[in-house]
Amino acid sequence: MSSGLKNYVDFWKEVYESPFPMNAVREVDGEFPPGMVEEMRQMATLYPEPYYGPFHEDIKNDLLLLLMNPGEVNEPREYLDHWNPHIQQRYTSWNRADYFNECGQFDKEWISIPENKNICSPDCPLHVLSKVGCRWRRVRYREAKHVIGLQFELLNTMEFIPYHSKRYNELGKFSEWVMSRKTTHMSYEALYDIAVNHRTKYIIGINSAWLDIFNSYGHRPLEDISILDSTGNLKGRLVKYQFTNNSLPIVMHLISRTVRLPLYPRVINEILRMLGLPQAKEQAPDDQIIDRLSSQTILVKRKASSSTEEKKKFLKQNDLVRINNEDLMISDVQERKSNYTEWMKTIKAGDKLEIIKSNNSKEIGKEVIFIKFKENNNIVFMKSNGKTEYNAKPDCFKPKM
């Protein structure tokens, strides 16, 4: 292990071997800026978690996931009492075998994981930390292994900022302080070491915060693409970085208000391609790929105004526009309704539709039976198993030919 990763691991081990871990962090990073503790709220009560995984051992067969921050811990007191002792023990005494006891390791195929029930084994190290056990991490295992199809052993993570929070808001006014932290520099050096020396198998990120770090160290993306479906809806944005010519690629999956790995087939295929793997998913033939490094990007508000109308005069066919945080080509902005309004005029109960958009990639391409429109034009339809579904938007379907 060279200095970048070793310094990172050794620092946090020393922090948690000290009697007052938060004081040990302040000695390196200084005091938190005014208002930050109040904004983050839980950072004052829960110890930071900069990474999760046996980074002091061999991780070459693992997936590394880059995250924003550990987020909120909304648990009753009987669970919260376990958190800080668990964190302290993990950074000082856990080894690779301890991580292998996590439930996500044992799912050999895609399984349903309930939202409000703890189905993880009592032997799982995360069982006592939450009323839903290891659910969050188990879902990420499911997405990576059984949706994307990656082959790896452990799912390890690194955080942009290690503190738990009830609110995040991109840290806003605190971003300058975050970027100047010595521990942020340690995180970058550790990641650089991992990527350049191929210390892990894959590196994927599911947030935009790390882009600020990459940019601050002079790294520019090799690729930056948006994937749109046939109706112009943004299904994902992927940004690829590579620190050196021979280092591991880092693929960032960006989509607003979503902290998860992608489910849409074309986005999955593009991730696999960027990682140097064969594309494996059947994808819609009329998906669109927008190269953001070469396309003109113009901001347009949805509501018409004089400034909006002026901007539209300069839009060309296939220019990229942003409307309510969605990336669309100007041709799609002009035509997106006409993609489905014609068949909406003629469809009748009993006609067949094909699903072209769904949060569950397994549903795409399936045939359903149209029943009726609701007042808001959303659709009531029946699946092949006889189950009736409500409130699906019309642009999730196309007529079955």
Count of DSSP strands:
16
Q: What structural category do the secondary elements indicate?
A: alpha+beta
Mean pLDDT: 80
- Radius of gyration over alpha carbons? 23 Å
Which spans have pLDDT < 50 for at least 5 consecutive residues?
Answer: 296-339
Shape: globular
Which band does the percent of strand residues land in?
Answer: 15-25%
Give the number of helices: 13
**Order of the strands making up the biggest sheet:** 1-3-2-4-7-6-5-8
From the N-terminal CA to the C-terminal CA, the straight-line distance is: 58 Å
Proportion in helices? 25-40%
Largest pleated sheet = 8 strands, mixed
The secondary-structure element order is HHHEEHHHEHHEHEEEHEEHEEHHEEEEE
Keywords:
401 residues; alpha+beta; eight-stranded mixed sheet; five-stranded antiparallel sheet; 13 helices; 16 strands; globular
Structure description:
- The protein is an alpha+beta fold.
- 31% of the residues lie in helices and 18% in strands.
- The protein is built from 13 helices and 16 strands.
- The protein has helices at 3-17, 21-29, 36-40, 77-93, 96-99, 135-148, 175-180, 182-196, 209-216, 265-274, 306-312, 330-335, 338-346, and strands at 51-52, 63-67, 155-159, 202-205, 223-228, 234-241, 250-254, 288-291, 297-299, 320-323, 326-329, 352-355, 367-373, 379-382, 388-392, 397-399.
- Strands 1-3-2-4-7-6-5-8 form an 8-stranded mixed beta sheet, with helices on both faces.
- Helix 1 (3-17) packs across helix 2 (21-29), helix 1 crosses helix 4 and helix 1 crosses helix 8 (182-196).
- It is globular.
- The relative contact order is 0.10.
- The model is unreliable at 296-339 (pLDDT under 50).
